[in-house]
């Protein structure tokens, strides 16, 4: 019997995988035999994460590029395809967050959010999809957020970028499903990463989160791996254009 969830030998590029969620996803894929490509802007962080996975006996290669720079993205994707192999799955994970009252929200921060959270998925998605289209197969997984559903104060621009990611995911499906590609999104709830450092440090926030979330706790980044493996494997062969929430039930409860 085929293992529906088998991803061994597949080249999987995870953007922003030197820390947080991307790091956990890359490790989860590597543990299941995928050839993971570690990405970030900082050469030393990429080298250190790649070395850590390699020392654990996994297949990992570094690709240093800034996902907001379309030329660097094109060059990075080209060299992964030439030197590591055909990209079977792309995880558009790199992202940033800024919290500030909307009336005071800096224009530079708005621009940075759009560039890192939205343009990145377009640039990397397009560069990778062109190769996938020529092979008539490939999986794209975009990282969205529960913030598309929650409307919390101070976070409107970030939530707007994640809403764009949900619709970009549907659009990738609409344009590319005919070529055998699948595009889906994972919408995480609250996870303790550098991106959430201010919330993690605030006991009042954890109290709110525990009261608001049916599971009554923060998520652990490893809890995103199951859905990520599902979406990168044949087990999800007819799942397309969807956003799957991994959030302890926070978006299911009013
Ligand atoms: P972290 O800040 O912990 O990690 C972000 C990663 O992205 C780092 O590896 C960083 O590396 C990389 N990165 C940032 N900017 C760029 C860039 N321009 N080019 C390449 N790499 C970049 O964030 P999280 O792990 O928390 O978040 C990952 C994704 O998950 C984001 O899209 C976020 O919006 C989303 N998310 C997170 C949630 C959470 O609770 N943590 C909840 C919902 C969604 P470096 O700085 O070295 O380049």
Fold and architecture overview:
By secondary structure, the chain is of the alpha/beta class. The chain has 9 helices and 7 strands, in the order βαβαβαβαβααβαααβ. A 7-stranded parallel β-sheet has the order 3-2-1-4-5-6-7, with helices on both faces. Helix 1 links the parallel strand 1 (11-14) and strand 2. The chain starts with 10 loop residues before the first strand and ends in an 8-residue tail after the last strand. The mean pLDDT is 97. Bound molecules: NADPH dihydro-nicotinamide-adenine-dinucleotide phosphate. Pfam families: adh_short_C2. It comes from Paracoccus onubensis. Keywords: Oxidoreductase.
Give the SSE layout:
Layout (H helix, E strand, L loop, with lengths): L10 E4 L5 H12 L3 E6 L2 H13 L3 E6 L5 H14 L3 E6 L14 H29 L2 E6 L3 H4 L5 H21 L4 E8 L8 H4 L2 H10 L12 H8 L10 E4 L8
Parallel strand pairs: 1-2, 1-4, 2-3, 4-5, 5-6, 6-7
């Amino acid at each position: 019997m085929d293992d529906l969830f088998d991803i061994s030998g597949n080249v999987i590029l995870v953007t922003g995988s030197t820390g947080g969620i991307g790091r956990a996803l890359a490790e989860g894929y590597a543990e299941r035999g995928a050839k993971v490509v570690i990405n970030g802007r900082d050469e030393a962080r990429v080298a250190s994460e790649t070395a850590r996975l390699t020392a654990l006996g996994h297949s990992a290669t570094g690709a240093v590029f800034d996902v907001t720079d379309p030329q660097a993205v094109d060059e990075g994707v080209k060299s992964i395809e030439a030197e590591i192999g055909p990209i079977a799955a792309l995880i558009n994970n790199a992202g940033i967050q800024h919290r500030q009252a909307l009336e005071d929200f800096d224009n530079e921060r708005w621009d940075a959010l759009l560039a890192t959270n939205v343009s990145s998925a377009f640039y990397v998605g397009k560069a990778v999809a062109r190769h996938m289209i020529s092979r008539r197969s490939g999986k794209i997984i975009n990282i969205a957020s529960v913030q598309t559903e929650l409307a919390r104060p101070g976070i409107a621009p970030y939530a707007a970028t994640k809403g764009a990611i949900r619709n970009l995911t549907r659009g990738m499906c609409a344009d590319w499903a005919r070529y055998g590609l699948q595009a889906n999104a994972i919408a995480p709830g609250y996870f303790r990463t550098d991106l959430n450092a201010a919330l993690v440090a605030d006991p009042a926030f954890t109290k709110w989160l525990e009261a608001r979330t049916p599971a009554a706790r923060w998520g652990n980044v490893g809890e995103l791996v199951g859905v990520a493996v599902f979406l990168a494997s044949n087990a999800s062969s007819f799942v397309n254009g969807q956003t799957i929430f991994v959030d302890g039930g926070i978006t299911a409860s009013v």
